[in-house]
Every structure is written in structure tokens, then in C-alpha cells.
Input
Amino acid sequence: METFVINKEEVNNRIDSYLAKKKDGLSRVAVQRLMEEEKILVNGKKAKPSYKTQENDKITVEEEKPKEVELKAQNIPIEIIYEDTDIIVVNKPKGMVVHPANGNPDGTLVNAIMAICKDSLSGIGGEIRPGIVHRIDKDTSGILIIAKNDKAHINLSEQIKNHEVQKTYIAMVRGIVKENEATINMPIGRSTKDRKKMAVTKNGKEAITHFKVIERYPQHNCTLLEVKIETGRTHQIRVHLSQIGYPIIGDTVYSNGKNEWGIQGQCLHAKSLQFKHPATGKEMFLEAELPTYFRAMILGTEEKIIAEK
Output
């Protein structure tokens, strides 16, 4: 446990920024997570990361130490796009969960990465999320960065927090999108009707999605889109596109159960990432190839595409 008492010169600072500057190796992202878990308290009470410090505030920090990862490594084939001593970038297949959770104790991306990287994974993500800097949904395929050490993890987390990582997705949606390109700016929060779902809500967090049309397929009533996001809300692309009337094909949660194409897993693919290498600062641009079923649907080689298992 570590305690900080705010003096006159330290007032009116966001608490997450203040602690990130005061403690080496502790990022704003890590501070926010610890505050949510009530491991950081202000005057003995839970506070928001946006809380502004006041004179004589007593801030206590119960910082987690990286736990030893006890998960088992599993020899699961995974496409490696790039790897060095600091990061590994992979193309996650649809149907694979990123890290263990209830109902998915193994067979995850983390289990596969552990077999590849051995002990070289950051511990910041916690016991069940070693190296995981960001995530994509189970049934979304595509590119992901994994950090091999804590320094790389902190740097990449800060880049994501500061919107310095550009993520580009490819999506096939139901319906013919009229606009050639547009921006969706609608707040997203937990659905009040179904707590397992996200929704556009008045009190949600800011969420901004940009899209442009790649190709329209009137004969199949679908449109291929390139999508970029400024924010990373849970299910953001799926919720936003469904909200404006163009749900992602194969999305069983946000498309009212309609799936005339027989696709298993939504046609949403994280195509590319642009970021600065956490150690060298070099500008990186990496791409992940579309999965076979997605390419087949675009090519229209079958009247009804059955997703590969």
C-alpha cells in the first residue's frame, strides 16, 4: 500500500494523470483499471479517473504485482504476422476467444501465444491475460498485438489511449448502404433491456466510427465496408452499424437473428493496424489476410456460403 497526500501545488489534476506521473511504470490505463477495482481510493472512497485532486486529499494505492502465469501453453496453430523481442502480432481466427474466461478455460489465443513466447509475455494484463494489450470479439477475426514485456505493454496502452493506433476493419453488412462514406457518433453503454448486450444509450460513453463503401452487391442485398474507429467501446462497430440499419452479416446478437447467408460468426475482420513500435518508435503498418469464408462471400463463388469450421 502506498499513500499520497495532495499539497497546494498538486491540486486540480486528474487523478489518473497525477498518479501516472508520480509512479514509474504505472500508466493511466493501469490507474483507471485499479480505480475500477477499488484498489485506488481517495480519502477512503472510490473515485472516478476524472476526479480532480484537492488539497489534503489522501490517495491510497494498492498496486497489483504481476502474478505468475499458471495457464498451460497449448500448441494451437496461429498465424504470426510479425515478431521481435518486444511484440508479437497475429491474425486471430474467428471462433477463438482471446483469453480464458468462464466457459473458455483453454483453447484461447493466450494459450497459443504462451506456447510460442514461453516466458516472454508482459504481466500487466494479469494472470489470465498475459501480454494482451487490446482485444477483438470471439467471432471477429484479424490482427492483434501482444506485448512481450511490461515496458512495451505500457507504451502500446498509452498509444491506444491517446488514439495513436489506427485500426481498420472490413465488414460485410446487410442492405445497400447509400452513403459513400459517413461518420457515426453515438454514445454506447450497457443495454438496459439485456445486460449482456451493448446499445446506443443517452448516458453511454462517446463512440465514433467512420466507414466508407468498398463495394455494393444489389443482387445479394449486402455492402462491403471499410471501417475505422476513434474509440474502442465494447462491440462498437457491431452496435453502430446495426443502429443505422446495416447489421453485420452473421452477427447473431445485433441482427435480430436474421442470417440468410448461413454464416457462422460475423463478417467482421480487423484488417490492419498502424502504430509506433514501443521500443524503437518506428512507424509500423501491418495487415492480416481475410479468412477464407469471407473472401468466398466477397467473390460470390457460392449462392449460399457455409462458414468453415
